[in-house]
Amino acid sequence: MKIKFSFLILITAILFSCKDNNFYSMDDFAKVEKIDAHYHIYTDENVSVDQAEKDNFELLCINTYSGRCERVADAQQWLTALHKKNPETVEYTTTFCLDGWDEPGWVDNTISWIDQCVADGAIAVKVWKNIGMEFRDKDSVLIMIDDPQFDPIFKHLADNGIPCVGHLGEPKNCWLPLEEMTTNNDKAYFAQHPQYHMYKHPDFPSYEEQMAARDRMLEKNPDLTFIGCHLASLEWSVDVLADFFDRFPNASADMAARMGQLFYQTRNDHEKVRDFFIKYQDRLLYGTDIIDSGGDAVPFQKNMHETWLKDWEYMVTDNTMTSDLIDGEFQGLKLPKEVINKIYFENAKKWYKLQ
Ligand SMILES: [Zn+2]
Question: What is the pTM for the complete model shown?
Answer without folding.
Answer: 0.92
